Recover the amino acids of this structure.
C-alpha cells in the first residue's frame, strides 16, 4: 500500500483550501465530517442528500481535501478514517473555514451545507 501523505500545516496555503472547497460535493463532505464530530469513514460519506457519489469520485474528493490540509486520513483495517484538521487550520488561518462554510450555508439554505458554523 502506498503511504498517505499529509501536508504539514505550515505548508498549507489559503489557495489550496479555496480550491478544495470550490467543489460543492467536497464542501458537503467536509460538513458531513464536521457533523460527525470530526471523524468519519470514507464509505459512510458516499451519499450526499439524494445522490450517491461514485467510489472513484469520492476517493478523488478525499485526496483533494487531504492535500489541502483539511483532513487527515488513516487506515483502520479495510476502512479509511478521516479526521478533520479544523483546529490546525483555524490556528493558521483564523476564521477562513467558518467564512467559507457560512457562505455555502447562506447560498445553499435547505441542503446539506446549511447551518454550518465552522469557526
Amino acid at each position: 500500500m502506498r503511504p498517505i501523505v499529509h501536508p504539514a500545516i505550515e505548508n498549507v496555503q489559503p489557495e489550496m483550501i479555496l480550491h478544495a472547497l470550490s467543489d460543492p460535493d467536497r464542501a458537503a463532505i467536509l460538513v458531513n465530517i464536521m457533523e460527525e464530530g470530526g471523524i468519519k469513514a470514507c464509505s459512510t460519506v458516499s451519499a450526499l442528500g439524494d445522490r450517491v457519489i461514485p467510489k472513484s469520485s469520492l476517493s478523488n474528493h478525499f485526496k483533494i481535501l487531504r492535500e489541502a490540509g483539511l483532513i487527515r486520513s488513516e487506515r483502520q483495517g479495510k476502512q479509511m478514517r478521516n479526521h478533520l484538521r479544523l483546529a490546525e487550520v483555524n490556528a493558521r488561518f483564523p476564521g477562513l473555514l467558518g467564512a467559507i462554510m457560512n457562505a455555502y450555508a447562506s447560498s445553499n439554505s435547505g441542503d446539506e451545507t446549511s447551518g454550518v458554523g465552522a469557526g
Q: What stands out?
A: Residues 29 and 101 are 11 Å apart (CA to CA). The domain at 12-107 is CATH 1.10.10.10 (Arc Repressor Mutant, subunit A). The radius of gyration is 13 Å. The beta strands are 39-41, 47-48, 51-52, 71-76, 79-84.
